[in-house]
Amino acid sequence: MEVDTVLVKVASRCNINCSYCYVYNMGDDGWKDMPALMSQETIEALSSALKTLCSDQSTPFATVLHGGEPLMMGARRLAYLLSKLRGVLPLTHPLCIQTNGTLITDEILDTCAAHHVAISISIDGPKPVNDKFRIGHKGESTFEKLVAGIDRLRNHPKATQLYSGLLAVIDPLSDPAEVYWFLKKLGAPSVDFLHRDGNHSNLPFGKESFESVEYGTWLSELFDTYLSDTSPIKIRFLDDLMKISMGGRGVKEGIGQKSYGILIVETDGALTKNDTLKSSFDGADKFETHWNVRNDQLSKIVKTEEFSKYHRLQVPSAIQCKTCPQLASCGGGMPLHRWHDKNGYDNPSVYCNDQKYLIQKINTRLKEEGVIS
């Protein structure tokens, strides 16, 4: 068992208020007990812990700064954090920031460039799509500030090094072709599309029932648009499904049967489970053991039975999944999408039928093109 990703919550608050956010608007309020920003002492402890992890495992891992909104740290504190992290993380170990883009400044970009930090920005589509859910605390638009941040990033002298891509949450009521062509115009090298958080007890937005395929239909139309583009941007979700259909392997959690070692570090240094589990129930991301980067060795944590039990959650337990011919491609989806208040995670993904619909669409197209038999 080795670590693939260390996701660091450097800020527990956010300057905008996306209505679908699992951190603030899905019933879990653990963020209220966290420091607003990671302290200098915790940054030093984190750096020491990551330095030890580099020595303990030979395989590189990625470190992703997250939140809340990580750029709420401000340029000076961010520069201190990045200098500490890059001081112990060689360039073989990716260092990334996931941001809503509204707080990007030239000073921040210069700092990220100096420390070889890649930046991914969250945006859901053109203004009507983006501002449907990604709004300010007073309900105001975030679109103009967001696009201005992307433009600033694109125009930076080190843009090729800095700009890693966009992340978009799917609105099944939007036009997938319109969303695709808009995001492509933003010059991103890749786009990662995410399903909305939800489960069997709290159906995702736009999904009528477990049997319905609103998201599968949307992604299938996106797939058609994707293949019609003679110079497409990368879409990791679709690329993974195609690679698996052709005998390869995916690189994204929730697709295929590969599992990943993911550590979450809170602003106080505490270690938690994947924070998307917050959408299941209040406290779903908490371990029984109170680990912290100030006191505990990361490589030892991932070898404990408690962490192994959490890691095994990535593997679906429902008999419907274990006997499904599409399991090699689907992988059972994300654990948070399997939750039901009555029997926990022992269910297929709430997106099961959407996945089957999309995988069938992809396989049919690949057969028509003579890529697979």
UniProtKB/TrEMBL annotation:
Its cofactor is [4Fe-4S] cluster. The keyword Glycosyltransferase does not apply. This is Radical SAM protein. Residues 1-249 form the Radical SAM core domain. CDD domains: Radical_SAM (cd01335). Keywords: 4Fe-4S, Iron, Iron-sulfur, Metal-binding, S-adenosyl-L-methionine. NCBIfam families: rSAM_YhhB. Coiled coil: none annotated. It comes from the Bacteria. InterPro entries: Aldolase_TIM (IPR013785), MoaA_NifB_PqqE_Fe-S-bd_CS (IPR000385), rSAM (IPR007197), rSAM_sf (IPR058240), Sulphatase_maturase_rSAM (IPR023867). SUPFAM superfamilies: Radical SAM enzymes (SSF102114).
